[in-house]
Amino acid sequence: SVFLxxxxxxxxxxxxxxxxxxxxxxxxxxxxxxxxxxxxxxxRQATLTSLARNGYVGILVxxxxxxxxxxxxxxxxxxxxxxISFVIAVIMLKSSMKKCFPNAGPTPKTE
Length: 111
Prior knowledge:
mainly alpha
């Protein structure tokens, strides 16, 4: 047979796919935030946001999960990196908006 017939391999594949796809929607959000920051012309924040998911955050999470966890923990490294990267992207967007629009915010009431 061309396809896998070993039950354990199929079960692991299904479990890993579910784990990895659990936060796949965040990937699009991270990209959207990264592109927004890039279009604002704030290069440092844009670079840090772009490198986070599969760069410094992704690598660190995989290393930590492989040391302290099992196979499922390593599979969960990508969703964990996605969540951390999303938080970083939101923080970078807020920082970028403060840089680009320093006078933005609620207008004080005048009486």
